[in-house]
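Next up, a chain.

===
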Amino acid sequence: MEASPEDRIRAGLRRGDLDEVRDRLLARSLPEQVALLERLAPADRAVVYRLLPRGRAFEVFTRLDAPLQRELLEALQEEEVRGVVDDLDPDDRVRLLDELPATVARRLLAGLTPQEQDATGLVMGYPSGSVGRLMSPELVVLDAAATAAQARDTVRSRLETAETVYMLPVVTAGRLTGVVGLRRLLAADDDVPVAALAREPVAVDARVPAEEAARLCAREKLVALPVVDGDRRPVGVFTFDDALDVLEAAEDEDVARSGGAEPLGRPYLSTPVRAVYRARIVWLLVLGVGATLTVRVLEAFEATLEQMVVLSVFIPLLIGTGGNTGNQAATTVTRALALGDVRVRDGARVALRELRTGALLGASLGTAGLVGVGLLYGWDVGLVIGLTLLVVCSLAATVGGLMPVLARALRVDPAVFSNPFITTFVDASGLVVYFLVAAAVLGL
C-alpha cells in the first residue's frame, strides 16, 4: 500500500531530511497542513511548524485549538512566541493567554504595544464563558448623523485593522441605534445620512453566555453580531466564524456528556492518554455507584425470580428498551432547549407530550411483546411483558423529557443530566415495575 503524505512527512522527520519535509508540507493545502500538525507529536509539531513560511505559519496557528497552541508555544523560542502573539487578534490572543501559565501570560502581555494591551485587557475583563470574552473589539462604528460618503471614508480608513466591515454598527450619542450592511452603504448616494440607511439592530450584551449569543447569531443568520455594554454602547463584534466555533464546542460537550464522559477539548489523536482517562473515570465511578440501585432491586425481588426463573430472561430487553426510550426523549428535549423551542415554564407541557408519546410507544412495543412472548412462553408471561413495556416506556419518556428541563431550571447544563443517568434511573424503576406487574399477574 502506498504511503500517505502524512507517513512520508513522518519518515522524513525520522531521517532528518527537512528539505523533503518542507517540500511535502508546502504541497498541501492549508486545511491539510492544520490536520497534519494536529496529529503530530509535540516535538515534531514544532519542527514542522518552523518549516512553514511566516504568513502561512500564522494562518495555521490561528486554526489550531488553544491547547495545541499552548503546546506549540512551549516548544518555540521566546522571540518566535512574541511574533505569533503580537499578530493575533485580541479575542484569539485572550483565548491563548487563558491556556498559558499566569506568569507566561503576564510576560507576553507586557511585551504588547499599549494599544494592543488595552484591546486585550478589554476582552479579558469580561467573565469567562461570556460573549465579551470572545468578541473582537476591533470594529468600525458609524455615526448616524454622518453622510454615506463620510461613512465610506471611515470604513476605508479601518480596512486593515477591523475584524469585519460587512456589518457596521450605527450610533447616536454613542449608543447603538441601528446597523447597516456594507452593500447598502456602497450603493447609497453620497449625501444620504447613515441614519436613513440603518435598520433595527440585533445586538447582545457583553455578559451574555457565548453559546446564547452564538445561537442568536445562527437563528438570525447574521454575518456578525454587535456586542454592547450596559449602556448600549458598542464594545465589540461577535462574528459568525466564532459563533460556529462556540456551537461546535457546545455540541462536542453535549455528545461527550450524553455518553458519560467529559469533552476532550482538542483533537483525539493529539490528546494524551492521561487526559482521555481523566475525561472518563469520574463519570464511570459515579455511574457505577448509581448502578448499585439496580443490584439492590434485584436483591429485593430475589424470591420472585426464584419462583419463576423465566422472568430473568427478559430483564435485558425491558431495561434496554426503557433506557433507549428515555435517551430519545432527553436528546430531543435537550436539543429543543438549546434552540429555544422549549423553556423552563414549558415543563408541564413537555411532561404531558412525552407521557403520551411514551404511552403510544409502550402500547406498540407491548402489543408486540404480548404476542411474541405469549406464543413462546405462555400468555400469562406475555401479558407481564406487554404491561411492563407499556408502563416502562411511559415512565422513561416522561422522566427523560423532564430531566433536561429540570437541569435548565437549576441553571445546570442539561447535558450533565446525561443519558447514562437516565438509563440508571430507568433500569432501577423499570425492574420495580416489572416485578410488581409479575407479582400481580402471576400471583407470586
